[in-house]
Structure to design on (273 residues):
């Protein structure tokens, strides 16, 4: 990164390099991008799904949803609502429509209670029986050493729960959660792709073409979100869907698991056979 001549910030303190420039009012988006950009230019934006892609949640969060629902509506949460690949906003909306009809306006209240319960119970994914899936941490590490690959999260989880999961499995160091997209505000997963890409472009000062954006997920809804956003999709059959089902959904590459980190890297770079 080229150093700039000494300049002054808004409170008149001399600063001597771009690295010491801190968040001040005169800092432009371009300044921020220069300050935070990796030394290798960004080439790829990899957006990882969490549940059954990087980790087995073992019901983590689900018990807090049930508890919060009961506390708020004095009814048991319906048990026949699909969770796979959907955003928490969509899931909680369905739960309310089915289990507490007429109370749809209380979605935000329910979200707040779910997240607060997870935090208050000081739950840790691993203590709860969850775990990183085999090869997940090695794959994250492999992509991080390649250079030019920004890794983040695209998950339907509520942000506060997603962050706890990422921390629990020791994946925080590999993932730039500043540009992550979570399921607090949107029901459609493809909308999350646009949010993450916009955040990454603002932070890194790089426009990612569709082929430079890669979603990695375990459900046809992950694949659909990627394709709707013009991005590449890597399917991983870590959850309830097979390699064949993920390929049929349109995955650019479908893998049985995360054990072959070189295959994952080649898939991200588009050099797989
Ligand atoms: Mg998933």
């Amino acid at each position: 990164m080229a150093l700039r001549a000494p300049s002054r910030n808004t409170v008149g303190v001399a600063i001597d390099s771009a690295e010491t420039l801190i968040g001040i009012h005169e800092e432009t988006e371009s300044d921020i991008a220069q300050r935070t950009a990796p030394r290798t230019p960004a080439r790829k934006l990899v957006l990882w799904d969490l549940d059954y892609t990087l980790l087995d949640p073992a019901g983590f969060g689900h018990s807090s949803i049930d508890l919060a629902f009961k506390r708020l509506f004095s009814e048991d949460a319906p048990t026949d609502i699909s969770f796979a690949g959907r955003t928490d906003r969509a899931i909680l909306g369905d739960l309310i429509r089915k289990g507490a009809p007429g109370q749809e306006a209380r979605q935000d209240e329910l979200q707040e209670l779910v997240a607060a319960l997870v935090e208050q119970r000081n739950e840790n994914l691993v203590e709860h029986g969850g775990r990183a899936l085999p090869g997940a941490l090695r794959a994250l590490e492999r992509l991080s050493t390649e250079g030019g690959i920004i890794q983040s999260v695209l998950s339907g989880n509520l942000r506060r729960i997603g962050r706890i999961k990422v921390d629990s499995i020791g994946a925080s160091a590999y993932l730039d959660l500043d540009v992550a997209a979570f399921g607090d505000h949107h029901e459609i997963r493809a909308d999350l792709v646009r949010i993450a890409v916009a955040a990454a472009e603002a932070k890194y000062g790089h426009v990612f073409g569709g082929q430079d954006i890669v979603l990695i997920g375990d459900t046809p809804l992950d694949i659909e979100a990627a394709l709707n956003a013009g991005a590449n999709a890597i399917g991983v059959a870590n959850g309830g869907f097979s390699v064949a089902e993920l390929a049929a959904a349109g995955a650019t590459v479908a893998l049985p698991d995360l054990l072959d980190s070189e295959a994952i890297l080649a898939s991200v770079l588009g050099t797989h056979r």
In short: Residues 189-204 form the longest helix (16 residues).
